[in-house]
């Protein structure tokens, strides 16, 4: 009986030591992998994809990544944010590692969608509301009624609290115009009204839109109404009435 108890105690000890051995083995393996990643996977080349406006050298410099940096220690999201901030016309950035020594940076550049007019010039913004840069050359699409606060290229549009609803409507409308292929047909957006946006279209129509609404649907309704008109007809298309019924008033 005593021998049986001794064997049980030995078995328990072996079980405890076996479990401890497994834990230490896993820790040693993880440490070896991390050490290998630190020693071996270093940046030797940076590959840039998707750039048009900016050169590969400009994007690499903006990233802050240097040869010899560790591929796994860098924060990809911080690098992407830095590129977007320093290069205003970069809308989005995707970063991936290609072992053993390459960092691949894919950028998606944006275009100026509109100009927030101020004096003899204005701040250019993308359809997502990113501030691009100041230009004293009039842009094809002028916006009145939204004034940026402390604007800086590479940042997101910020306005006074009283104009925030206007700014939100502007971005939503710009995105709808871009997605529908209508953006290049618009020359002026007036958001100074309380409940109505006035839009100049094709140098032919003044379109009245509700300040808030389903803009993709409204633009589709607008296009259908224009198709029903004769090519020579000009005037105002009012989509602010109930149920988005279009009221056309000839000029």
Task: Describe what this molecule looks like in 3D.
This protein has 251 residues and is an alpha/beta fold. The protein folds into 2 domains: 45-109, membrane protein fhac (Ubiquitin-like (UB roll)), CATH 3.10.20.310; 114-250, Rossmann fold, CATH 3.40.50.10960. The protein is built from 5 helices and 12 strands. The N and C termini lie far apart (111 Å).
Provide mean pLDDT, rounded. 89
Query: What is the count of structural domains?
Result: 2
Radius of gyration of CA atoms, rounded to a whole number? 30 Å
Low-confidence parts: none
Q: Got a strand count?
A: 12
How far is the first residue's CA from the last residue's CA? 111 Å
Briefly note the structural class of the backbone: alpha/beta
Q: What is the 3D shape?
A: elongated
Helix coverage percent of residues?
A: 25-40%
CATH class of the largest domain: Alpha Beta
Can you count the helices? 5
Question: Would you identify the CATH architecture of the largest domain?
Answer: 3-Layer(aba) Sandwich
Beta-strand content: 25-35%
CATH topology of the largest domain: the name is Rossmann fold
| Biggest sheet details | 9 strands, mixed
Q: Spell out the helices and strands N to C.
A: HEHHEEEEEEHEEEHEE
Strand arrangement, largest sheet? 6-5-4-7-8-9-10-11-12
């Amino acid at each position: 009986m005593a021998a049986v108890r001794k064997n049980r105690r030995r078995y328990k000890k072996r079980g405890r030591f076996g479990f401890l051995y497994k834990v230490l083995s896993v820790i040693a393996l993880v440490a070896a992998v991390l050490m290998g990643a630190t020693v071996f996977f270093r940046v030797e080349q940076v590959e840039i994809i998707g750039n048009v406006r900016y050169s590969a050298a400009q994007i690499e410099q903006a990233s802050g990544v240097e040869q010899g940096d560790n591929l796994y220690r860098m924060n990809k999201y911080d690098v992407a944010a830095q590129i977007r901030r320093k290069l205003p016309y970069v809308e989005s950035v995707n970063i991936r590692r290609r072992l053993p020594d390459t960092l691949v940076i894919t950028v998606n550049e944006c275009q100026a969608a509109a100009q927030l007019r101020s004096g003899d010039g204005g701040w250019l913004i993308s359809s997502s509301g990113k501030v691009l840069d100041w230009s004293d050359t009039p842009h094809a699409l002028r916006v009145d009624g939204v004034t940026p606060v402390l604007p800086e290229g590479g940042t997101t549009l910020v306005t006074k609290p009283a104009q925030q609803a206007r700014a939100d409507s502007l971005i939503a409308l710009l995105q709808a115009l871009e997605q529908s292929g209508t953006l290049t047909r618009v020359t002026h957006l007036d958001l100074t009204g309380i409940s109505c946006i006035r839009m100049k279209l094709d140098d032919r129509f003044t379109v009245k839109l509700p300040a808030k609404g389903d803009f993709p649907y409204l633009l589709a309704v607008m296009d259908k109404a224009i198709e029903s008109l004769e090519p020579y007809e000009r005037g105002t298309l009012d989509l602010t009435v109930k149920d988005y019924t279009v009221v056309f008033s000839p000029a």
